[in-house]
Amino acid sequence: MNIKSLLLGSAAALIAVSGARAADAVVVAEPEPAEYVKICDVYGAGYFYIPGTETCLRIGGYVRYDIGVGDAGSLDGVNHVPDHQSAGDTHSTYYKNTRFTLKTWTGQETELGTLKTYTETRFNYGNSSGDYLDQAASNADDWQGRNKSLSLRYAWIQLGGLRVGKDDTAFDTFIGYAGNVIQDTLVPYGGQESNVVQYYFDAGNGFTGLVSLEEGAGKVGTIDSYVPHVVGGLKYKGDWGAVTGVVAYDSNYEEVAGKVRLDVNVSKELTLFIIGGYGTDDNLNDNAGNAIDASGRGFYKQWGGNWAVWGGGTYKFNDKTAFNAQVSYDDWKNLGIAANVAYTVVPGFTVTAEVDYLNAGKFDDADFNNWTKANKKSSVGGILRFQRSF
Predict the structure, then answer these.
(1) How many structural domains comprise the chain?
(2) Distance between CA 3 and CA 13 in Å, rounded?
(3) Residues 358, 378: contact at Cβ < 8 Å?
(4) Domain range holding 130?
(5) How far apart are CA 249 and CA 179, in angstroms?
(6) Within a domain: 41
(7) Is 284 a member of any domain?
(8) CB 363 within 8 A of CB 370
(9) Which of the chain's termini has less CB crowding within 10 Å, N or C?
(10) What is the CATH number of the domain that holds 338?
(11) Is residue 144 one of the residues assigned to a domain?
């Protein structure tokens, strides 16, 4: 009996201790399911849902490397830079620029329509183009390689048809830029950057329109009162191409400019365009100390004289190779010709080789503020561009 009682007591003690230890054990919680990024295909490829929201986000951009030679256009070689060894001697050298551009897009459906944003920020390293001897003292070192501008190129919000923020002027965006050449402004066709308040509307049956209130940019373009610049546009688009017209009122100088564009899809390989521009310039000579408006150019009518024309097109040899060309001419007999071949090495990586010719009036070397249409100069230049887009 004593042995049996002892055995029973020991078993009871072991059970009690085991129960106490079991009660004290740490219970590990089950891991929560991971929340993976979800693809959003409503607005096109590359969008994904921001976790925990109904907003779709896309991140992209490009890395670009430009090599420019010669002296034609805005991306020309850099001329007459000081010799590092011989005092008083000058050389010409390349125009070089490396750019990283970061872009973001967002989209979200609301009870008032689609809510969208777009931003584009540009970082640049290289030298500036243009004749060294023509530069003002403050820009005398522009031929040197260095970190250049950091610019907020675009940043706008759009709800339904209403867009506010920083964009290019609708005088350019609504009608379209002048072709797929790199230097499409050998004969300039209008101002670009501006703060805007815009409304886009779709009238149906291929008709769309726009009204834009704009601030402009720069000494000539920025408004100097509470009266904004005003741009209006109307477009008809069909399978064959499109017809577009825009009219702009420059509130600084009380001038009007307009452009009409015709796009034609000749075939799957060939597309052509032509743009005609006309603008008044009665009040654009009121500031002789400024080289731009002293030559009869405002924020919108930047070509020489009253009228100008741009034409060209694109021919796609295959999925990888395209030929692009543009010819431009204005009332002051300024002539620009640009042509390039763009080759897609692999998807997302394109190499473009372009040749440009310009016959136009130039700034006086002795007086940078003295622009003369009579002093014509012919110039030739070239650009080799490498661009990785993502």
Answers:
(1) 1
(2) 15
(3) yes
(4) 62-389
(5) 24
(6) no
(7) yes
(8) yes
(9) N
(10) 2.40.160.10
(11) yes
Give me the phi and psi of 84, to 5 degrees please.
Answer: -75, -15
Question: How far apart (Å, rounded) are the C-alpha atoms in residues 165 and 172?
Answer: 16
Q: How far apart are CA 213 and CA 225, in angstroms?
A: 13
Per-residue pLDDT for the chain (390 aa), expressed as one digit of tens each?
A: 555 555 455 555 555 555 544 455 566 667 666 667 899 999 999 999 999 899 999 999 999 999 998 887 665 567 777 878 877 677 888 889 999 999 999 999 999 999 999 999 999 999 877 665 555 555 567 778 889 889 999 999 999 999 999 999 999 999 999 999 999 999 999 988 999 999 999 999 999 999 999 999 998 899 999 999 999 999 999 999 999 999 999 999 999 999 999 999 999 999 999 999 999 998 887 544 444 444 578 899 999 999 999 999 999 999 999 999 999 999 999 999 999 999 999 999 999 999 999 998 765 444 444 455 666 788 899 999 999 999
Dmax (CA) for the chain in angstroms is 131
Strands (E), the chain: 48-49, 56-70, 78-82, 90-93, 95-110, 113-126, 130-131, 146-159, 162-168, 193-204, 207-214, 229-238, 241-250, 255-265, 270-279, 307-316, 321-330, 335-346, 349-364, 367-389
**Where do the H-state alpha helices sit in the chain?**
2-24, 170-173, 218-221
255-265 vs 241-250, strand pairing mode: antiparallel
**CA-CA distance, 308 to 51, in Å (whole number)?**
51
Grouping H, G, I as helix, E, B as strand and the rest as coil, residue 266 is coil
Q: What is the CA radius of gyration of the chain?
A: 31
12, part of any domain: no
For residue 367, give both structure tokens: 């007086």
Would you state the structure tokens that stand for residue 37, as one six-digit string?
A: 């990024």
Of the candidates 385, 293, 308, 278, the residue with the CA atom closest to the CA atom of residue 341: 385
